[in-house]
Structures are given as structure tokens and as C-alpha cells.
Amino acid sequence: FNSDKQYSSNMNRNTGHKHGHVFAVEVATYDSSFPDYRQPVEIGCFSLDSYRQFFNDGRQLKCYVEPSSKNPNFNLRDGYKDRYIKRNEHIKEKLDHILKWVLVNKQRFPMSADGKSPAVGNQLHTDFITWRGHLTKILTTPYESREGWLMAVTLFNGTYYMSEVETEEAKRQREHRTEMQEELMYGGYKFEQYLCADKPQGNPNPAGVVNTNEAFCTVVRTRLSSHSLVFAGEVDCKDISCPSQKPPQCYLELKTSREMYNPNQQRNFHRFKLIKWWAQSFLPGVPRIIAGFRDDEGKVVSLQSFDTMKIHHLVKNERNCWKPAVCLNFCDAFLSFVKKVVTQDDHRLVHLFSWQPGKDISYTVHMDSVYSFLPDWYVEKLLY
Ligand code: 0WD
Ligand code: CA
Q1: How many whole angstroms from 174 Cα to the centroid of ligand 1?
Q2: Global pTM value
Q3: Distances (CA, A) of 289 to 189, 210, 249, 355
Q4: Taking Cα atoms as reference points, which of 24, 265, 227, 307 lies closest to residue 141?
């Protein structure tokens, strides 16, 4: 390849099939039975501290503390001006934290036949490594009408690495957020602070600082049809009263949403928000979501618990509603498409898959470009 030469594929559905370049995003195509999705298993975890430093442990995992009232009156704006340390959004971390985790946990990947770890040729025996959030975007694509995406894929040593690239539109929106949008983002983290303690015996500390550099991430292994997946996802807290106490079953996802006053708002919540909540928690097997509904003053006026596996029953009476099987069948087909298109194993090569609402998926090919995302330290240490 010439440096960063771009190849556009023919995305015409009618002629594209024979070139193997076609990829349609239509609900009807994927409206069949549920594909095999294996119970996700946690194979490790990591933490990012208040300076965004990586630790190969669960030090940042918080404990959920059930509030004494279902109508708690949490003020989500409190501390926005004076007790908020915001992560630097200009730093694009790509898959770096996951890759650090892989390097120090090679022994947690399937072993070679002789039982010696790591496996022969340092193959990870895993088809895809990515962030959970990237898979959430793929899952919800058949029903998405507003935001497109760009996914960079590199095949290296037998594994497909997938790392999102910010679209121009997303960048523009991020750089032009209103004060209100910034406050809403802060409010999501503030809500966590009201409900979470650092230790099982501890209490939440709403007087503290909100620092969005801090994160706890679970690393899970699962399989979607023929695709073995390892992905990391940020987990808000664990439920210490949970009978099994076993991750990911003891994990909880915390969410905030605007209070609903009429059936129209309720319908939109079911159709557009619950699909995202479902996909995000379903992927790593997080069984429960605690939602805080806020009023226009930014106060949480009510709490509601959603069982991830029951979310679809709440929404299925809406006309033209989303279906979990469509989401998973689409993801399965997209990952198969990626495997068909990306065949050259080269850490410097990126296939950039691009999707805009209402369009088919297309891709471009880039050698040694700004899109390359596997760092030298990873490539060298994985192989040797
Ligand atoms: O490189 C990128 N383009 C991205 C990197 C996009 C999205 C996330 N990330 C990284 C960050 O390092 C972050 O620590 O992913 C981590 C979170 O991964 P995820 O679990 O795969 O992401 P997602 O499911 O989209 O979000 C989970 C939570 C969010 O909670 P809510 O309740 O809002 O869904 O992670 C937080 C947020 O609290 N979060 C982020 N944190 C840091 N950077 C980001 C982000 N870009 N996006 C969401
Ligand atoms: Ca959350």
C-alpha cells in the first residue's frame, strides 16, 4: 500500500454482494431468532485512579448503598462549580488501557494444547478485543437515526482489535456543548457519588469531589455465535447485598433520566433510551440498572430499578419497537463482515468502517496513518 491510500468499497446492495463489500443495516434483515450469546464471564478487571493511572486490580470498585427513601431529593448540580475535576477529553486513549491489561494478563487467555501459558505464538485465541461501549453502538445501529460512527479495525496476531474514531459531527458537538449539557453530564457522576461508598461498611460522601478520571472496568469474555469476544466496560458499583456476590452478577449500572410527565415522554424513553440502557448492561451481563429521575431543577425525585433481562418486556408493546434479537443478529453479521473484509494480519493496517443513519456501512483502508492505534509497546510485548 501507499501510505494512507484509501480504498472505497462499492456499497450498492444490488451489485455489491458479488464483491463481498456489501453491508446493509435494515431491521427486517435481522428479524430472526435470538443468536447464541454465551453468559459473560469476568476474566479480570482494572482501575483508573484520579490521575488516570492504570492499576491491574479493582481498587476503584464502589459499593452501592441503598438510600433510605425512594424519593431522595439528591441535588445533581451540587459541586458542579467548585468540586468537579473533569477528565481531559482531548486525550484519546483508544484501547490503551485494555491493551495494558492484556499484556499483564496473558495467562488468562486460553492456553495452548500442552497446557503451557501463554499459548503458542502468543495467540490470544480471541477474535475481537474492544470496549463494551463500541459494541453497544453496533448493537443499537439498526434502530439509530441520529448518530453515525467510525470503527477502526486492525487484525494483529490472529485477533481483531476494534477502536472507535470520533466522527466530525461528534467532535463538533463535544466542542460546542452548552452549559446545561455539561451540567447534565456532571449530574450522572454526581448521582453515583450519592449512592456509592468506597468500602462495604462505608457511606456515600456527597461533600466530596467528583473526579471523572476515576473508573473501575470489568474485563469479560463471551461469545456471539462464531465470534469470541473480550471487552472491557466501566462498572459503576457492586451490590454488596447481592446473594451471589459474584461478578458480573453483583454489578449495578446507575443512570439518570428526566422525569416523565406524559405518555409521549414515556414512549420516547422506552423507544430511544431503554435500548441503550439494555444493550450496555446486557453485553457484560450486568443484571440491574438503578435509575434516578430528575426534575428540571436537577433534583432526583424518584428511583426505579430495572432488571436488564426484563427491559424488553416493558417496551415490546410500543409500535415498531426495538428487538434484542435484531440488535444481536446485526452485531453478529457485522462482525462476520469485518472478518470477511479484514484478512491481512498487520498491526500497521487499519480498515475504517463508517456508518451514517439511513446508509449502508462502507470502509476505507489505511496503512501507517493517523488511524493506526496499536502502540509499539503493545506489539513488541505481546509477541516477545
Ligand atoms: O476512545 C473512545 N472513543 C472511547 C473510550 C469512547 C468511550 C469510552 N472510552 C473509554 C474510556 O476510557 C472509559 O473509561 O471507555 C471507558 C468506558 O468504557 P465503556 O464502558 O466501554 O463505555 P460506555 O459503556 O459507553 O460508558 C460507560 C461509562 C459511562 O457511563 P453512562 O452511565 O453514562 O453510560 O463510562 C463513562 C460514563 O460514565 N464514559 C466515559 N468515560 C471516559 N471517557 C467515556 C469516555 N469517552 N464515555 C463514557
Ligand atoms: Ca452509569
Answers
A1: 14
A2: 0.94
A3: 15, 21, 12, 29
A4: 24
